[in-house]
Design a protein that fits this description.
It is a single chain. With 159 residues, this protein is α+β, with helices and mostly antiparallel strands. The protein has one domain: Hotdog Thioesterase (Thiol Ester Dehydrase, Chain A, Roll). It contains 2 helices and 7 strands; from the N terminus they run βαββαββββ. The longest helix has 19 residues. The two termini are 24 Å apart.
């Protein structure tokens, strides 16, 4: 797929569980920051889910006694959701390819995310040309926006 518009036929998958997710992206504990994808439209958009739990390693130091999900990890979770969308949306010729972050722009954090929250990562493709994809992402907890950003990624062969 290239250009501003995807092909006319849409492929929709209602749910990507953790096993399928690990086939799409190479991240593993402790850097796998999404638990599942609950909605995906190939080449267009998807919603990733991260269940925030107290036993995650970042909470040992961020912040002891008052754990808050680091903003950079929320953006990384957004990027992983987009990476899964890219791999899911491309054909079999992308087997083994990786999706690398290129840039983050207009990033905003609106409210803290804490253990017990269910972070939904709403990712929409803005544009893609060749192997470069641009996205707009919005993180929500209980329907309220907690973070948002515009970012770009590139599909590459592993080194």
């Amino acid at each position: 797929m290239s250009g501003d518009k995807p092909e006319e036929t849409e492929t929709t998958l209602e749910d990507v569980d953790i096993n399928r997710l690990m086939q799409l992206i190479p991240h593993r504990y402790p850097m796998l920051l999404i638990d599942r994808i609950v909605d995906i439209v190939a080449g267009e958009r998807c919603i990733g889910v991260k269940n925030i739990t107290y036993n995650e390693p970042q909470f040992m130091g961020h912040f002891p006694g008052q754990p808050v999900m680091p903003g950079v990890l929320m953006i990384e979770a957004m990027a992983q959701t987009a990476g899964a969308l890219v791999i899911y949306s491309t054909d079999k010729s992308t087997d083994g390819k990786l999706v690398y972050f290129l840039s983050v722009d207009d990033c905003r954090f609106r409210r803290p995310v804490v253990p017990g929250d269910r972070l939904e990562l709403h990712v929409t493709r803005v544009h893609n040309r060749g192997d470069v994809w641009k996205f707009h992402g919005v993180g929500k907890v209980d329907g309220k926006v907690v973070c948002e950003a515009n970012y770009a990624a590139m599909l590459v062969d592993p080194a």
